[in-house]
């Protein structure tokens, strides 16, 4: 593959965290595109194969495997749309309440879309520098046994992997179905669909709570387009050789972590958004980042 590249950008418009990454060529350069192309080709080869890989959970039927992968693909696309705010949805940027200036908050109305719940959707995202390599951070975030360290929705309980579908030779490229095991017997168990992917250019960990009866239909090969979900997750990028917050740069480099949540704050599209809802999501992001930093510091 021969790749000719030419990129020009105004660095004054780039956040200081991302300037080393773009200077290194990893942001817009051919390294990123080739790494993504290689991962996608590997994924397509596995999906077109009739054989089951050693990492697959064989309890999923071939039809269910296809439906789960299709649902995960839609979930990840919606996540990326939700944090980049392209023309797919009409977003309104918010600057209300006691919201951290580095947290971007947007809202939109979800109407007549069978693939997501109707109502007012709030999206909040921020990017921070983490003193851990992208691989280490990715492995931590995708590990269901470590999820209780950062996921407030887990209520401190462990997660169990119910199904696993490999999407590449690297175990980090996969789709899985997780079930929560709440510590409190009065709390009901929930299912979480998760897709993870990694290559030399970066990594994604995307997840969404899913309806249990709907997932039974999908796992039996049923139509996944009517499963309503609002994905949240993480994007992990190498820091390009820079560092942040005057912290000592670790061996192997640090990571740029984007944390993003999409939450249904009201199931009526005509409802008014409250300041309390915005501040709650802002606090959720801040708390999640703090928990991730604390957990990784304990590991080292």
TrEMBL record:
Name the record gives this protein: START domain-containing protein
GO molecular function: DNA binding; lipid binding
Residue ranges occupied by any START domain in the UniProt entry: 1-46
Organism: Arabis alpina
Coiled coil (UniProt feature): none
Keywords: DNA-binding, Homeobox, Nucleus, Transcription, Transcription regulation
Pfam families cross-referenced by the UniProt entry: PDF2_C, START
InterPro entries in the record: HD-Zip_IV, HD-Zip_IV_C, START_lipid-bd_dom
Source species, domain of life: Eukaryota
Keyword DNA damage attached: no
Signal peptide annotation: none
UniProt entry tagged with the keyword Nucleus: yes
């Amino acid at each position: 593959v021969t790749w000719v590249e030419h990129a020009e950008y105004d660095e004054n418009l780039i956040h200081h965290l991302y300037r080393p990454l773009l200077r290194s060529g990893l942001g817009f350069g051919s390294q990123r595109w080739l790494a993504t192309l290689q991962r996608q080709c590997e994924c397509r080869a596995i999906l077109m194969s009739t054989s089951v890989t050693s990492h697959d959970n064989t309890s999923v039927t071939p039809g269910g495997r296809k439906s789960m992968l299709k649902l995960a693909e839609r979930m990840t696309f919606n996540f990326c749309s939700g944090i980049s705010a392209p023309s797919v949805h009409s977003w309104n940027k918010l600057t209300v309440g006691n919201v951290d200036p580095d947290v971007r908050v947007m809202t939109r109305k979800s109407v007549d879309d069978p693939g997501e719940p109707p109502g007012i959707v709030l999206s909040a995202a921020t990017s921070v520098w983490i003193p851990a390599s992208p691989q280490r951070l990715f492995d931590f975030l995708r590990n269901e046994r470590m999820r209780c360290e950062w996921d407030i929705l887990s209520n401190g309980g462990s997660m169990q992997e119910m199904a696993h579908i490999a999407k590449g030779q690297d175990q980090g490229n996969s789709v899985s179905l997780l079930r929560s095991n709440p510590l409190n017997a009065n709390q009901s168990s929930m299912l979480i669909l998760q897709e993870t992917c990694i290559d030399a250019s970066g990594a994604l960990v995307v997840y969404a709570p899913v309806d249990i009866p709907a997932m039974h239909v999908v796992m039996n090969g049923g139509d996944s387009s009517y499963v309503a979900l609002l994905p949240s997750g993480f994007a992990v990028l190498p820091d390009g050789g820079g560092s942040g917050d005057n912290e000592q740069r670790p061996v192997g480099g640090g990571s740029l972590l984007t944390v993003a949540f999409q939450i249904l704050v009201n199931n009526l599209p005509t409802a008014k958004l409250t300041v309390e809802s915005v501040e709650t999501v802002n606090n959720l992001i801040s708390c999640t980042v703090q928990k991730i930093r604390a957990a990784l510091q304990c590991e080292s």
